[in-house]
Amino acid sequence: MGLLDGKVAIVTGAGQGIGRAIAEGLAADGARVVVNDIGVSLTGERENAAIAEEVVLAIADRGGEAAANMDSIASWEGATRLVETAMDRFGRVDLVVNNAGILRDAIFHKLEPEQWRAVLAVHLDGSYHVSRAAAPVMRQQGTGSFVFMTSTAGLIGNFGQANYMAAKMGMVGLMRAIAMDMQRFNVRANCIAPFAWSRMISSIPVETEADKARVAKLQRMTPDKIAPLVGFLGSDRAKDVSGQIFTVRNNEIFLMSQPRPIRSIHRSDGWTAETIADLLPGAMAPSFAPLERSTSVFSWDPI
């Protein structure tokens, strides 16, 4: 008996990397899986249209059950066809894993509108499209779980990824909205920020010895480390877990903080720009969030 026996999962961007590891892990835990991937490169160009079918065959070889879908979640029509695939093949949808994504990195003053729109179309619009298409099914079932793959690049920061960071933080807001709006229907939503060597970070420039050491550490964090937490969040054992942000880093699982008030100042007769300038820096600067990259926050070697 697997933790996900009888459940049906949709995994977007499941043709390789983290998505594939999640799809195969969910199948190993007993879920029937719809493998969605249009077979594009890291930057979104068509590459291997049969990649979803390859994952389906790999799952079947291990005794699991899966179906392939090659629709683009960047469109509402593609997302609805994806959910229809799950319903036509398996009759229900219990778990949606919003994992699909592409990169179009550029330093902000050189970031073109097309680069901005392309990344948000897959990560954020795509997550909305698939989740919205699946929501009525879960509402009628009275149960369901959404898992959004966010990133420490969005939660903390990174250079040259304004589009990616905005999309990943947007997914956190979308997750929180779903968790609140659909709580009454026993539908949950959570985020995972994964550390794993995959296509999404394989483009990291390696120019110095420090860069090489950093990449070597990342390569030890394999995508299969992410799948167990996704399986748990999709299971009935996670019925009281919703609205949370987790990070998986090799064998470590972190619960991430979320924005809450940390300091305040008050002036009974109101404020002017000058009085704010006089008081705010001294009162609040010690608590300002530093401009850090995720590698500065997670500065120790993975366990």
From TrEMBL:
Coiled coil: none annotated. Residues 7-200 form the Ketoreductase domain. Pfam families: adh_short. InterPro entries: KR_dom, NAD(P)-bd_dom_sf, Peroxisomal_Beta-Oxidation, SDR_fam. It comes from the Bacteria. SUPFAM superfamilies: NAD(P)-binding Rossmann-fold domains. Signal peptide: none annotated. Belongs to the short-chain dehydrogenases/reductases (SDR) family. This is SDR family oxidoreductase.
